[in-house]
C-alpha cells in the first residue's frame, strides 16, 4: 500500500491519527478540506468512506509522485458521483498534472461525464487528483475508487535526439553511448570524437573530418600535424569541403584553419571557393585544425597529401661508364655502371641527400685486371701482356710426355676472372716413344721378343709373401698414371692357404719394376707398393672381376721408357683392316697384342726380356663352346683356335692391348686372367682376360685419372 500523509489546515486534532480513522472522522468533522501526499511505485485512492456514501462539502486532494524516469498512470475501478446539471458543476473528480488537466469527471460509470475504462497518464512523475462534493445531494452516492502505478518513460523513443549516437532505456531512466572512436561528453548525452594530436608521417595519406562523408559530430576539436623528413616537400589538396557557414559573419560556428610551416591560412568554412590555393605546400610541416559547435549537419571535408623529395644537382656519367638516375630527389639513388672491361672505382650507388647534394665521391670507371694466373704442374703458362688487363690471354703448355686437359688458352674476363677452368697437364697415355714391331704370326709361347722399350707402360710385378703361401709369384701389369699400376686381382690374392683363402697380400710384399726390357738389368727401377685395391666385385674362385690397382709408394718420373697406357672410355673405337670403326663392345675378328715376361711354354723358364704376341679377339659364343668353365660379362677371350699363340704362366695381369682408331693410342682392352688346362697355346683353347672397360669408372675414381 502506498504511503499516505494527511494535512488539514486548522484540524490538528486529526493530524496524527491513522489514515483509516482519519478518513472515517472526515464525515463528522466540521473541517471538510484535506491534502494527501502519496509516493511509491503504486497505490490506491478512494472517496472518504467508500464504499459508503460520501458526505457533502468535501474537498480532498491527492498529490501523487513517483521516482524520476517514471510517469503516473491512473485508472478507476469504481465511480458513482452526483451527475451535474451543466457539465460537472456539483460533485466531481478532477485529474491534472502540472498545468495540464486531463479531465473533470462526474456521474455514474458508463455515463457521458464519467472516466469510463480509460486510464489517465501524466507526462511527468506527478499527478493531482481532486475530489469535490457540494453542499447537498438528493441521492446517496458511494463515490469512487482508483489505482495508480508508476509507468516507465522510454526516453529513447519519446525524446527526439536525447543521445548523439546510441540510447539505451532501462526502468526509471536511460543512458547514452557512442560509436567506436568517440567518447561520451560530460553532459552524458553528446559524443565527442578523438581527433586531436594526430601525427602523420607516412609518405602519403588522407585527412578527413570525423565520420566523413556522414555529418561530422558536434563539439569536435580536431588537429592533424603532417610532418615530413628533411629534404621533402608536403603537398596538400582538398578534394571535398562542406562545413557549416554563415551568410554575414566569417565562420562563426564551424571552421578549419591551416598552418603551413609558419604561415596561417583560414579560417575556412562553407564550400571550397576560388580564392583557395590550388595546392598547399610546405617544406617542414602542415597543421590542420577543425572545430564544430553544437549544431549543423554538414558532411565535412576530405584532403589528400603526399611527400615529394627536393631535387639534387644533375650528375654526369664517368668516362667509359654510365649513370642511371630514375629520380633525382631525396631518398632516391643514382646507379653507376661501366662499359664491358671496366669496373666502378668508388661507390656504385649515391643517394640524394636532403641538402641537395649526392652522397659519397663521384666514382670512376677503371679497366678490369685479373690476378696472375697460377702455375700448372708439368707445364707452364705464358701471359701475353704483363698488365693483366681485360681481354689479354694466358696460354698453357705442357712438358714433353704430357698433354693439356682442358682449355690451353684463357682470357681475362670483364668480371676480373679468367675464363674457363684452369687446365691440367696429364701424362700422354698409350703412345710409345719407340715404335713397336709390326705384327708377326708368332706367339709369346715360343714367340718373339718385343722391341726394347716399345711398350713403356709394361710393369713387372713380383709378390713374395711366404707367410701367405707365396714364395715367388711373378705377374704383369700396366702403368696407368704416375702413381698407379693396373694388374689382375688374383696376382695379389692368397690362394694356397685355405684358412686365409681370398685375402689380399700385404702391400709391402709386392714390388713393381718399370722402365726395363730385361728384368735382369740392374738399372731397372724397382718400386715399392703402398696400397693394393681390388675391384669390389672380385670373386677369387671364379676369377670374376679380376682387376686390381697398385698404388706406388712414390710417383714415377715419366721418360721415354716409362709412360702410361690408356684406360678405355665409353667412346673408344677400334678399326679393322678396312678402316671401319667399331665400338670396343663390337670387335669383329680383330687382333690385340699381349705382352709379358711369363713362361714361353709349360715347362719353360720365365722370360727375362719382354715378349709380345698378337692374338685374335674371340666372339663370346665361340669362346663359350670351347671353355668348360662359365664365363661372366666381365671376361673376354683371345687366342688362336689352331693353338701356338697364347699368354702363359707369369703373364697374369699384363695387358691385352688394342689401338684406338681415331688417335692411334693403345689402351688396355683386357688383363691376362686365366685359361683351361695345364698347357698354354693348345689348339681349341683360348686365354680368358678381364674386360677392363667394365671397370672404367671404378679405375678412374680410385686412381683419380
From TrEMBL:
Residues 31-151, 195-308 form the CUB domain. It is found in: Secreted. The modification (3R)-3-hydroxyasparagine is found at residue 169. Residues 152-192 form the EGF-like domain. Residues 444-704 form the Peptidase S1 domain. GO terms for cellular component: extracellular space. Pfam families: CUB, EGF_CA, Sushi, Trypsin. One of its GO terms (biological process) is innate immune response. Keywords: Calcium, Complement pathway, Disulfide bond, EGF-like domain, Hydrolase, Hydroxylation, Immunity, Innate immunity, Metal-binding, Protease, Repeat, Secreted, Serine protease, Signal, Sushi. Ca(2+) 1 binds at residues 82, 91, 134, 136. The active site is at residues 490, 546, 652. Residues 1-33 form the signal peptide. Disulfide bonds join 88-106, 156-167, 163-176, 178-191, 195-222, 251-269, 312-352, 338-365, 370-412, 398-425, 429-566, 623-637, 648-680. Ca(2+) 2 binds at residues 152, 155, 169-170, 173. GO terms for molecular function: calcium ion binding; serine-type endopeptidase activity. It comes from the Eukaryota. The iron and 2-oxoglutarate dependent 3-hydroxylation of aspartate and asparagine is (R) stereospecific within EGF domains. Ca(2+) 3 binds at residues 244, 254, 293, 295. Residues 310-367, 368-427 form the Sushi domain. InterPro entries: CUB_dom, EGF, EGF-like_Ca-bd_dom, EGF-type_Asp/Asn_hydroxyl_site, EGF_Ca-bd_CS, NOTCH1_EGF-like, Pept_S1A_C1r/C1S/mannan-bd, Peptidase_S1_PA. PANTHER family: COMPLEMENT COMPONENT 1, S SUBCOMPONENT-RELATED, MANNAN-BINDING LECTIN SERINE PROTEASE 1-LIKE. This is Mannan-binding lectin serine protease 1-like. The gene is LOC110989287.
Amino acid at each position: 500500500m502506498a504511503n499516505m500523509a494527511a494535512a488539514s489546515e486548522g484540524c490538528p486534532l486529526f493530524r496524527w491519527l491513522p489514515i483509516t480513522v482519519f478518513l472515517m472522522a472526515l464525515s463528522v468533522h466540521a473541517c471538510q478540506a484535506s491534502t494527501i501526499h502519496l509516493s511509491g511505485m503504486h497505490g490506491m485512492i478512494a472517496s472518504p468512506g467508500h464504499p459508503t456514501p460520501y458526505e457533502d462539502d468535501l474537498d480532498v486532494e491527492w498529490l501523487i509522485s513517483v521516482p524520476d524516469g517514471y510517469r503516473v498512470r491512473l485508472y478507476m475501478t469504481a465511480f458513482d458521483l452526483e451527475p451535474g446539471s451543466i457539465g460537472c458543476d456539483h460533485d466531481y473528480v478532477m485529474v491534472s498534472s502540472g498545468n495540464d488537466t486531463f479531465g473533470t469527471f462526474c456521474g455514474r460509470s458508463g455515463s457521458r461525464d464519467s472516466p469510463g475504462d480509460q486510464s489517465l497518464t501524466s507526462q511527468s512523475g506527478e499527478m493531482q487528483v481532486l475530489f469535490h462534493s457540494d453542499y447537498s445531494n438528493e441521492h446517496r452516492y458511494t463515490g469512487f475508487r482508483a489505482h495508480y502505478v508508476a509507468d516507465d518513460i522510454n526516453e529513447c523513443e519519446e525524446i527526439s535526439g536525447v543521445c548523439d549516437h546510441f540510447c539505451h532505456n532501462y526502468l526509471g531512466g536511460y543512458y547514452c553511448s557512442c560509436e567506436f572512436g568517440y567518447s561520451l561528453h560530460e553532459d552524458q548525452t553528446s559524443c565527442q570524437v578523438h581527433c586531436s594530436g594526430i601525427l602523420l608521417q607516412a609518405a602519403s595519406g588522407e585527412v578527413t573530418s570525423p565520420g566523413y562523408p556522414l555529418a561530422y559530430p558536434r563539439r569536435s576539436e580536431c588537429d592533424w600535424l603532417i610532418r615530413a623528413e628533411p629534404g621533402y616537400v608536403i603537398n596538400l589538396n582538398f578534394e571535398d569541403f562542406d562545413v557549416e557557414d554563415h551568410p554575414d559573419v566569417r565562420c562563426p560556428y564551424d571552421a578549419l584553419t591551416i598552418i603551413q610551416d609558419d604561415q596561417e591560412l583560414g579560417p575556412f568554412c562553407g564550400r571550397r571557393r576560388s580564392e583557395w590555393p590550388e595546392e598547399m605546400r610546405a617544406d617542414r610541416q602542415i597543421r590542420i585544425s577543425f572545430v564544430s559547435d553544437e549544431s549543423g549537419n554538414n558532411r565535412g571535408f576530405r584532403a589528400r597529401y603526399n611527400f615529394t623529395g627536393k631535387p639534387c644537382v644533375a650528375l654526369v656519367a664517368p668516362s667509359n661508364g654510365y649513370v642511371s638516375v630514375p629520380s633525382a630527389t631525396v631518398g632516391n639513388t643514382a646507379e653507376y655502371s661501366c662499359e664491358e672491361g671496366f669496373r666502378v672505382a668508388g661507390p656504385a650507388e649515391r643517394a640524394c641527400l636532403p641538402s641537395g647534394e649526392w652522397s659519397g665521391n663521384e666514382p670512376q670507371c677503371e679497366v678490369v685486371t685479373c690476378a696472375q694466373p697460377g702455375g700448372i704442374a708439368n707445364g707452364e703458362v705464358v701471359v701475353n701482356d704483363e698488365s693483366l688487363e681485360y681481354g689479354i690471354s694466358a696460354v698453357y703448355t705442357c712438358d714433353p710426355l704430357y698433354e693439356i686437359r682442358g682449355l690451353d688458352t684463357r682470357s681475362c674476363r670483364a668480371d676480373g676472372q679468367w675464363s674457363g677452368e684452369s687446365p691440367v697437364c696429364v701424362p700422354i697415355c698409350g703412345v710409345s716413344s719407340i715404335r713397336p714391331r709390326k705384327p708377326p704370326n708368332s706367339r709369346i709361347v715360343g714367340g718373339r721378343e718385343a722391341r726394347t722399350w716399345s711398350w713403356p707402360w709394361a710393369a713387372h710385378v713380383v709378390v713374395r709373401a711366404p707367410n701367405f703361401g707365396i714364395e715367388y709369384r711373378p705377374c704383369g701389369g700396366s702403368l696407368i698414371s704416375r702413381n698407379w699400376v693396373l694388374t689382375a686381382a688374383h696376382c695379389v690374392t692368397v690362394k694356397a692357404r685355405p684358412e686365409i683363402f681370398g685375402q689380399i697380400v700385404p702391400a709391402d710384399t709386392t714390388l713393381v719394376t718399370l722402365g726395363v726390357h730385361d728384368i735382369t738389368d740392374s738399372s731397372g727401377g724397382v718400386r715399392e707398393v703402398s696400397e693394393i685395391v681390388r675391384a669390389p666385385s672380385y670373386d677369387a674362385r671364379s676369377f670374376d672381376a679380376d682387376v686390381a690397382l697398385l698404388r706406388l709408394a712414390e710417383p714415377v718420373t715419366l721418360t721415354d721408357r716409362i709412360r702410361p697406357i690408356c684406360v678405355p672410355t665409353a667412346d673408344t673405337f677400334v678399326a679393322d683392316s678396312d678402316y671401319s670403326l667399331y665400338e670396343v663392345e663390337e670387335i669383329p675378328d680383330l687382333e690385340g697384342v699381349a705382352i709379358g715376361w711369363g713362361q714361353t711354354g709349360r715347362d719353360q723358364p720365365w722370360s727375362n726380356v719382354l715378349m709380345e704376341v698378337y692374338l685374335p679377339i674371340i666372339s663370346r659364343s665361340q669362346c663359350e663352346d670351347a671353355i668348360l668353365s662359365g664365363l661372366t660379362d666381365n671376361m673376354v677371350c683371345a687366342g688362336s683356335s689352331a693353338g701356338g699363340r697364347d699368354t702363359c704362366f707369369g703373364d697374369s695381369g699384363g695387358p691385352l692391348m688394342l689401338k684406338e682408331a681415331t688417335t692411334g693410342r693403345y689402351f688396355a682392352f683386357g688383363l691376362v686372367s686365366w685359361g683351361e688346362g695345364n698347357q698354354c697355346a693348345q689348339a681349341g683353347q683360348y686365354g680368358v682376360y678381364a674386360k677392363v672397360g667394365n671397370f672404367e669408372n671404378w679405375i678412374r675414381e680410385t686412381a683419380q685419372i
